[in-house]
Specification:
The chain is an all-alpha fold. About 75% of the residues lie in helices and about 0% in strands.
Length: about 260
């Protein structure tokens, strides 16, 4: 029995191996991915917490370095503060180090439900999100923290001496590093939205003035309430926005080039 032209011309955007699964199978798969992700986080958390207790706080020393360079010690104001600070450091280290593994588990769960066009739009996020996040964190650690903490510690004099607690200092430092890590994801998010046809380079270019307002509002929310730190975040965000326009132009041109030409009627 020959195939009709209409049947042969019908495109199939789904994977050839896509087979409908019952709800119980989806729930079982979700449970498997969650258990594996949590197991990875717990293992790394226990290792990081053990290292903090047994090897003279190597992870805390990384966060403490901007203060060590200025000979400013950390203090704890409550009896339980060091213990819970080490717990938080272990948790942050586990989330940071296992992020690629957890993202991979998430990708393995959602990939069968995506069309091929959606898979091509999402896979760059899976590959590039972690390097960009690390790059943003490193920028915050080596550029923003030294300048920002110099600004804050510049108010020190013979009358006002800094007494920094472990918990508050760690919270501020982690907050800044994670904030810069997330904002460096802007080009990857732009690539995904462009490939999905939600935005394009012209839309980004035409809305640049509104985006600048949103950038400074976002920087004010993500950073401490001072103009200096907000500017240190808004500056890279503006640069990343301009890079995102080029990313949108490149990914948009590739998408349009791959679309088949419509036949004349």
């Amino acid at each position: 029995m020959s195939e009709s032209p209409n049947d042969s011309a019908q495109p199939s955007d789904k994977n050839s191996e896509d087979v409908p699964m019952p709800l119980t199978a989806h729930l079982t798969e979700l449970r498997t991915r969650l258990v594996r992700s949590l197991a990875g986080i717990v293992i790394v958390f226990m290792a990081a917490f053990y290292c903090e207790l047994e090897f003279d706080q190597p992870l805390l020393a990384i966060f403490r370095k901007p203060l060590d360079d200025r000979n400013i010690p950390l203090h704890f104001l409550e009896l339980t503060e060091p213990f819970f600070t080490y717990l938080r450091i272990g948790l942050y280290a586990a989330l940071f180090l296992t992020f690629p593994y957890v993202l991979g588990q998430l990708w393995l769960f959602i990939r069968p439900a995506l069309y091929s066009r959606e898979q091509k739009a999402v896979w760059p996020f899976v590959l590039l999100s972690y390097p960009l996040f690390v790059g943003g964190g490193l920028f915050g650690y080596f550029v923003v923290l030294p300048f920002g903490y110099d600004f804050f510690l510049g108010f020190k004099n013979e009358v006002t001496l800094p007494t920094l607690s472990m918990a508050s200092y760690l919270s501020l430092t982690i907050h800044l590093l994670f904030a810069f890590g997330f904002v460096f994801e802007m080009p990857t998010v732009t690539f995904i939205l462009t490939r999905l046809g939600i935005i394009d380079a012209d839309w980004l270019r035409n809305n640049r003035k509104y985006s600048l307002v949103v950038i400074f509002i976002g920087a004010a929310i993500l950073t401490p309430p001072d103009v200096f730190t907000q500017t240190l975040m808004a500056g890279p965000l503006i640069i990343l926005y301009e890079i995102s326009i080029w990313v949108a132009r490149f990914s948009g041109s590739n998408t349009s080039a791959k679309e088949p030409a419509k036949s004349a009627v």
